[in-house]
């Protein structure tokens, strides 16, 4: 029986950098097995929200609970923080692979150091996930020998090696050449189909429409619109969202009659 406790709950959360208010009272929840796409113009607070979900940024106000760990509690322990790090994986715009380590060694590092897995166990798991992302033959090569799309798939495999319950993606295709985007989105779509809880900050509107269960449109640190993917992406209520979708070259009418 699937756990009915939400994967993430956030209530009136605020985040500022000095005098700049980046998140201004955002609320919502994400269910287990759900894919949430977060869209909006640059600077609207999307990436900051995502970074709050794994405590790379600390909220200033509000309540934030991720995988039943209260990140807004003033006495959050290091043990709880370590547990969060193992349960929540994150894939960044830039791949953040260690250039001096082979692909296999990149994947084995955290499971051995953080989870205490044996070399053999970490090796077997790393090869399993490389196979899963279609890069089994790249185990012994170094990051500089990979294309951008291959590096991002390795980064996804590396996160999966920690057996996360939640995956966060911060514009994972924005640094890729257009012809390499599809191979990364295909891996993410497969994860979604397998029931992984995912929060995806993205400008890939077609991916959001086809894969996300819900979409939130952020503007100036607030949630301007939220709903199912068809509601938000094909029936926008505001002129601002319509203008944003047009800028993204997404045909708003598409799918209305599907």
UniProtKB/TrEMBL annotation:
CDD domains, per database record: ABC_HisP_GlnQ
Keywords: ATP-binding, Nucleotide-binding, Phosphonate transport, Transport
Keyword presence, Lipid biosynthesis: no
A single GO BP: organic phosphonate transport
ABC transporter domain residues: 8-245
Pfam families: ABC_tran (PF00005)
Gene3D superfamilies: P-loop containing nucleotide triphosphate hydrolases
Species this protein is from: Allocoleopsis franciscana PCC 7113
Classification via InterPro entries: AAA+_ATPase (IPR003593), ABC_ATPase_HisP-typ (IPR030679), ABC_transporter-like_ATP-bd (IPR003439), ABC_transporter-like_CS (IPR017871), MetN_ABC_transporter-like (IPR050086), P-loop_NTPase (IPR027417)
Family listed: Belongs to the ABC transporter superfamily.
Signal peptide region: none
Keyword Transport: yes
Gene Ontology molecular function terms on file: ABC-type amino acid transporter activity; ATP binding; ATP hydrolysis activity
Protein name: ABC-type polar amino acid transport system, ATPase component
């Amino acid at each position: 029986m699937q756990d009915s406790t939400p994967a993430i709950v956030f209530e009136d959360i605020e985040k500022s950098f000095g005098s700049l208010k980046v998140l201004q009272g955002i609320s919502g929840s994400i269910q287990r097995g759900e894919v949430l796409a977060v869209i909006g113009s640059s600077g609207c607070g999307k990436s900051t929200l995502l970074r709050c979900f794994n405590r790379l940024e600390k909220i200033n106000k509000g309540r934030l609970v991720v995988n039943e760990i209260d990140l807004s509690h003033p006495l959050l322990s290091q043990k709880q923080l370590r547990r969060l790090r193992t349960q929540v994986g994150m894939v960044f715009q830039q791949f953040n692979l260690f250039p001096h380590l082979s692909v296999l060694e990149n994947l084995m590092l955290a499971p051995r150091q953080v989870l205490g897995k044996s070399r053999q166990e970490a090796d077997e798991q790393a090869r399993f996930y490389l196979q899963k992302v279609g890069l089994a033959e790249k185990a012994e090569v170094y990051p500089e020998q990979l294309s951008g799309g291959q590096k991002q798939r390795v980064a996804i495999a590396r996160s999966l090696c920690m057996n996360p319950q939640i995956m966060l993606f911060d514009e994972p295709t924005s640094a890729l050449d257009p012809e390499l985007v599809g191979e990364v989105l295909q891996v993410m779509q497969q994860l979604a189909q397998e029931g992984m809880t995912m929060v995806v900050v993205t400008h890939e509107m077609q991916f959001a429409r086809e894969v996300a269960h819900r979409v939130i449109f952020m503007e100036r640190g607030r949630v301007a619109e939220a709903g199912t993917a068809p509601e938000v992406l094909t029936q926008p209520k505001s002129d601002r969202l319509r203008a944003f979708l047009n800028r993204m070259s997404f045909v708003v009418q598409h799918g209305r009659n599907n």
